[in-house]
Amino acid sequence: MVGDSKVGGRRERGDVAARYAPVAGYEGFRLLRRRYRRSALVAATLFLGWYFAYVGLSAFARGFMARPVAGDVNVALLLGLVQIVSTFVMAGAYLAYARRRLDPLAGELR
Amino acid sequence: MIGQVTGHALTFGLFSVLVLGTLGITVWARATTRGADDFYAGGRTFSGPQNGIALAGDYMSAASFLGIAGLIALSGYDGFLYSIGFLVAWLVALLLVELMRNTGRFTLGDVLSQRVRRQPPVRRAAVVSTVTVSVFYLLAQMVGAGALVSLLLGIHRGEKFLGMSASAARTVTIVAVGALMILYVAFGGMKGTTWVQIVKSALLMAGAAALTALVLGRFGFDVGAMLGSAADASGKGDAFLRPGLRYGQDVPGDAYQTIVNKLDFISLALALVLGTAGLPHIVNRFFTVPDGRAARRSVAWAIGLVGAFYLMTPALGFGAAALVGRSKIVAQDPSGNTAAPQLAQAVGEHYGGRVGGDVLLACIGAVAFATILAVVSGLVLASSTSLAHDYFGQVLMFGRPRESQEVAVARFAAFLVGALAIVLAVAARNLNVAFLVALAFAMAAAANLPAIVLTLFWRRFNSAGVVAGIYGGLVSSLVLVVFSPVVSGKTDPVTGESLSLFPASVDFHLFPLENPGLVSIPIGFLCAVAGTLLGREKADPERYDDLSVRALTGAGAH
After folding, report:
1. Tens digits of per-residue pLDDT, B288-307?
2. CATH number, domain at B135?
3. Which ipTM score applies to this complex?
4. How many domains does chain A have?
5. What is the DSSP string of B134-146?
6. Nearest Cβ partner of A110 from B231, B555, B558?
7. Exposed / middle / buried, residue B334 (Cβ in 10 Å: 0-12, 13-18, 19+)
8. pTM for this one?
């Protein structure tokens, strides 16, 4: 519909802007929020820590990074490859967690 | 000479097919675009995988395809190292995407203004940040496009082409690319742009995969042999396969400069990892799917595609170092941007002689052209959406615009932003503006990410905090770059030539790092916190609760 109220999305009556606020007190929601925050915090710490460890090694531990692993492949190349693989693994793990532990709770609350 | 002419003709032919095909998509999209949901969010009917492919298309710019391949070809391992940050960054987006999709409608401004008491200043800040980040990124892409397309068409410095000098050809190219991008956005909206991205993404992945297979085949699928011969051909030996040729360089006898170089590298890494989730053209794409779960799935698809792509770039880069060689690459383009097309020609010649070389070169050139067109369109769309929806609709019309009017403004804004980008890019066509990509990431990380994270997770965050965080991050990034060595004061130690934007005689640099992120990202967070605490307004706890519930459950999402 042209010109309908959807484009606005602003407060229409006093309470509309906080329509879902009461749900925040539900036990199910608290559990969902706790799980999301914990998993996001753990994931972020892990992947940022691991990435900056790699960056740090590249900047400060060049001798270690230069060690040969097999033929012309050295530690630096291997760790770069592991970064890509670990990104895939981390994404997969978070997706699986969200599907199993977050989505059902969110579905009940919605 | 005859071979070259056929090559040119083939390149022209493929470019024309691309242009016609994408314009066809645009015409179709125009006919099926009805209202704001269609224009800004493609009707929200794209599936997770479709949107994931488009996200990857938006993200893998010519800077990643040609730039990273060239970087690896010239600097070896460090080019690969650079690409890793671009990939890991997507994990930040994966953690936030569902919450952002659930709380916004079309733009970053929607997400940020949900819970604040005073919307207009927050919307304005979001518009300023969106347009600034997009225009800088756009400028880098378009100046690059001018240089690249001229090179792909085989116009070298000092050569004439259809009676034009190389500089004139660049101008023509920039204007043509700009005109196409305006057409895609103004008429096709998000629907047209998304399909253009999907086509481009598929072409890019197919092109990169084919080239990778051919390169590896050339070495009997022995990666070690390819690495070895790249290291030998580079003239740098084993150092070519280790970090340190470009980022965080050790300067013998100068401990200060060595530390500065390493901090600069860490600063770049920080901006890449934290910037992606705040890039406006990426954020807007979160809203083209029906719900939060589909948005999460689309980011997962993007991670898969971007990761697969960055697994292939080393083959292209090291392959070019081994098969084309440094001197030939530098002769074409000093920053190595033509390494991938040159590799295509070399590999094609190996397998199919002269004709094979021309055909493969034309194909990879067309892929690069599609990449440029698609990415610039995404950026213009993000800016015009924000100008029309956040500024016109929510600020000027107090959140009560007529939908048809707002969409008309968005189409007009696409012309405006596109024209601005064309003018700026033509003016800067002979400057080295590659640093603008890293700057755009740093600004997105410093200005947008703090506002997004604190909006979602900090109960006390308020309008003053959003505004202070966005402007603080944006201004500090800009100021630091202006006084950094990328703008003035960096000279080649051997030749004394300027490596900055300004000529060697001008030097007003005060800040030692080329990448502002290490300083400006903390400043963005600090400003956001300080603005919140100093602002007189108290956050509304009910609205924060409401936002939390919407974000995590998807209740009431558009």
Report:
1. 999 999 999 999 999 999 99
2. 1.20.1730.10
3. 0.93
4. 1
5. HHHHHHHHHHHHH
6. B555
7. exposed
8. 0.93
